[in-house]
Amino acid sequence: MPLRETLTDEDGKYCFTATKGLWLVVPEISPEEKKQGFMFHQEELRAFITDSGILSLSFLSSNLEISGKVQCIKKNDCVGLTVKLT
Predict the structure, then answer these.
(1) What one-character-per-residue DSSP string does 1-69 give?
(2) How far is CA 5 from CA 12, 24, 27, 30, 65, in A?
C-alpha cells in the first residue's frame, strides 16, 4: 500500500489525494497525548477508493470514565492491593 502523511487543521479535519485501491488510514497520537490517556475508538480505518473517491472518513476519540469499588472480605486483604486496568 502507498504511504501518505498529512496533518489535521485546527478543527481536526484532513485531506489528501489517493489513487484507486485499498488504503489503511492510521491516526498518529503523540507521546504526550498517549501519556494523557488520549485514544481513538478505532486504531485504523480501511478505505477502498473508487472513481468517486471518499469525502468523509472520521476517527472518533474515546473519552472514558471507569469507576468501581473493590470490597475485600477481610480488612487486611486490601492492604497493598493494586487494581490495574489494561
Answers:
(1) ---------TTS-------SEEEEE-----HHHHHTT-EES-S-EEEEE-TT--S-----EE-------
(2) 14, 12, 10, 15, 32
The C-alpha atoms of residue 52 and residue 80 are separated, in whole angstroms, by 59
Q: Is the pTM of this model over 0.85?
A: no
Compute the average pLDDT of residues 15-22.
Answer: 80
Rg (CA), the chain: 20
Beta strands 61-62 and 45-49 are unpaired
Give, in degrees to the nearest 5, the angle at Cα 67 between 73 and 74.
10
Q: How many distinct structural domains can be found in the chain?
A: 1
> Would you say 57 and 48 are in contact if contact means Cβ atoms under 8 Å apart?
no
